[in-house]
Amino acid sequence: HTTTPPPPHRASSDMGNGQSVNAAKRQSLRKLTDIISPVPADIDVAQRAVAVPIKTIAAACGLAEDDYEPYGRYKAKVSERVASRKTDTTSGQRGGYYVVVAGINPTPLGEGKSTTTIGLAQAMGAHLERPTVACIRQPSMGPTFGIKGGAAGGGYSQVIPMEEMNLHLTGDIHAIGAANNLLAAAVDTRVFHELTQKDEALFDRLCPKGKNGKRGAFAKSMRGRLERLGLGHKRDDADALTTEERAKFARLDIDRERISWRRVVDMNDRFLRKITIGQSDTEKGFTRETGFDITVASEIMAVLAMTTSMEDMERRLGAMVVAPDVRGNPVTADDLGVTGALLALMKDAIKPTLMQTLEGTPVLVHAGPFANIASGNSSVIADQIGLSMVGEGGFVLTEAGFGADIGLEKFMHLKCRSSGLKPHAAVIVATVRALKLHGGGPAVTPGKPLAEAYTREDVELVKKGVANLTRHVENTKKFGVPVVVALNVFPSDTAEEHEAIRAAAIAAGADDCVLCTHHAEGGKGATKLGEAVAAACEKNKDAKEFKLLYPDSMGIKEKISKIACELYRAKDVSFSEQAEEKIAMFTAQGFARLPICMAKTQYSFSHDANLKGAPSGFTLPIGDVRCSAGAGFIVPLVGAFPTIPGLPTRPAYYEIGVDTKTDRVVGLS
After folding, report:
1. Given a cut of 50, is residue 505 above it in pLDDT?
2. Cβ-proximal residues to 170 (8 Å cutoff; 6+ apart), any chain
3. Pairing mode, strands 512-516 and 292-294
4. Is the separation of the CB atoms in 379 and 80 below 8 Å?
5. Which of 240, 276, 309, 481 has its CA 20 to 30 A from that of 489?
6. HSE on the CB side for 36, CA within 13 Å?
């Protein structure tokens, strides 16, 4: 589906200069040819494409060979240090225009937000010839083998090699899982040893004597705790601690009943939601109930998404709270002495993975938090690197997960608050199918044929459902960001249905509403969207109207209510007894200034996935609250919200396998 690329680019010593960059762009960017209709399966499109060697893509981005590490022929890890290279001296913004791509509340089939992000990148890079980088999240293998499938885009708007992206990529999620579970093991093991050892024996094992009979200096990983205990001046001589100080240092006194750190696995396994650990006789009866989260919901994934440097990551990892002690004080990874080990496991994961679209536009894949149970956005570092690479007048397209009520809201309140970056425009992706569902259409169920309502014209059903789109447009504009609606076209749509959506979008305040056929045509099908996005950005060059909807100084409950009432349109918020206790504890611990990361269903503005359209006047229930102090936010769980998905009756894994004659993966979507 692509023209055959020219010979591979040879990197030169002056890789960053304009002549080398332009030469590499000519070798990498290409327009699709020989497009097939109807569109073949995603994996068939991807595997027929001819990818360009990753060093050519890197050269087109102005990267020298020292800036990245190849992982095979078509992937590379980009150094996080590239992020700090260029800053616009007038606005403080790094490089080019910053565009966030979000969507309406989707059906369970997804509405093509990732596909639109990639199609728009192909349009702007290969067709409109604007320097462009797409920043997207790494797919979790839970959905890949479950319901939703992968997240490399679809049709003729994809990241390639798509099977490598949708499976292990460069191992970031595995690194997060290992780090997360190391910390979980450290917590339970420390509790066990404190329950079974006296103070002096515990201290002796933590700080053993050398052959000379002296303990010497504390390990570097122990110094953070020493400082917090006011014992930093004794860090070079463990023998200098008094008996009381030794007990104070050695005993964390973790409250076993309130340990919040959970284990993770990157699969949809509902039977791990609640488990009992410590049942072996070797654990001496010290059992407790806990559970698993999916790996992308780990706070370490959120730390990866929010961090700005290796030093910042070390600070954030050390600040992660695993439990309160028996006096209510937070116990952190630093207290456990495990921060350095976590950083060692994450040192390569901090580097975004450089890939390419079907039309040669560069893509940075990094971090993968779900928007319904985590921060839901690609990393700050990837966006900063992208802005550095595109330069003034270029475009970074960064994707926010699920609907704009959660993904885009978290992009604004978490990511932009932390990074200081200001978006110039937002794209809201909509489909006729989803708006019919919001208008009262029958249920959409993966694996079952769509009801007739979705395959024949029904303008009135669309008109009833556009309230969902208009609320997302109105909410986005509250942040002072212009909106372009991308109407992802399906073959069964009609012109009358499209016009009803366009009229509603413009009436709600969108700058434009553009029909997009990038799934069937690649970048060519999103060129008008690219022109509309460029126009919106150029009119908002200074992003001076950008604003957040609540200050740091607002209390935890007030922040939750602000989001619930102003964006979701709830009447009020109810807090369970457990949520009230947690909020009081986090406030007492000094975390009240942190922003909010709501965990709720992606299928509705409300807590109830069945409340479609634009519901209002409901009470939003907060069942529990967690603190992600390292990532830098408070996580309210709306209702009884699971943090690890389950598998459907017929998961996607039924279709996935390997052609043993070619070694190619088959059946991925």
Report:
1. yes
2. 71, 75, 77, 348, 353
3. unpaired
4. no
5. 481
6. 13
